[in-house]
What we know:
The chain has 245 residues and is of the alpha/beta class. It has helices spanning 18-29, 41-51, 63-73, 96-124, 136-139, 145-165, 183-192, 195-202, 212-223, and strands spanning 9-13, 33-38, 54-57, 78-81, 127-132, 170-177, 234-237. The protein has a single domain (9-178, 212-235), classed as Rossmann fold (3-Layer(aba) Sandwich).
Amino acid sequence: MAEERRTRHALVTGGANGIGAAIVLRLLADGMAVTFCDRDIAGGDALASATGANFRPVDATDLAAIAALGGSLGPVDVLVNNIGVDQHAFFTETGPEDWRSLLTINLESAFAFTHAALPAMQANRYGRIVNIASEAGRLGSKGGSVYAAAKAGLIGFTRSIARENARYGITANTIAPGPVLTPMVERAIAEVGDKLHADMAALTLMKRLGQPSEIAAAVAFFASEDSSFVTGECLGVSGGMGCGA
Length: 245
Ligand SMILES: NC(=O)c1ccc[n+]([C@@H]2O[C@H](COP(=O)([O-])OP(=O)(O)OC[C@H]3O[C@@H](n4cnc5c(N)ncnc54)[C@H](O)[C@@H]3O)[C@@H](O)[C@H]2O)c1
């Protein structure tokens, strides 16, 4: 008789809106128990009561709070590091405070969540880590240099975690989304104007923005048993942007 397996527990960071919320919905639909965290308390409460997912408020600039949250959650089988903030300024217009803040939220928070989750994954000899980077981390970004550096760092970090943890049955992979219609991009369009929508679509072979559910579908694969022989990869989910549209 096949051994009965307990329900997998997934933690999604930045799950209250956009791509993170789509990942929460998808992993719930795939039968996982889902905890998500976010600094948007109203948005998090609304999603939790609509879906039954467990919401934990946290601000990812507070690395000690992330460690405390990790310690209070119990074992996490699937960690999706999704929290991120973008940048809209040329490098010469930025300074050390911007660099620190962008690196803390986009990169160090993933270190802290991964650091909190790994010991139990290693003990259980099972884990799936999925990190949401960006095509900016592979191609660079005009007006997003520090963001791109953080995302490139996330890809290197993920490959290193894959190397260190394959022996424990833990996989670690990165997804590099192209432009996806989320509150992050809606805010940018509101700031810059409608032309930005067309400009971003033009970067892709498919000449459109992605939907959050299209990123969540790729996360679902990396989060599942089906990806058991896939680790250290970075998958572009970007309408072909990565192949030089
Ligand atoms: N939307 C895109 O076009 C796009 C493209 C490439 C990569 N990405 C990446 O995908 C991920 C999700 O992006 P999105 O477009 O859904 O963004 P979004 O702004 O729509 O949602 C991000 C979520 O993260 C939360 N968050 C942000 N900073 C936080 C902090 N300090 N502490 C706790 N929560 C915080 C926000 O409250 C929000 O719920 C990010 O890592 C982003 O860099 C997005």
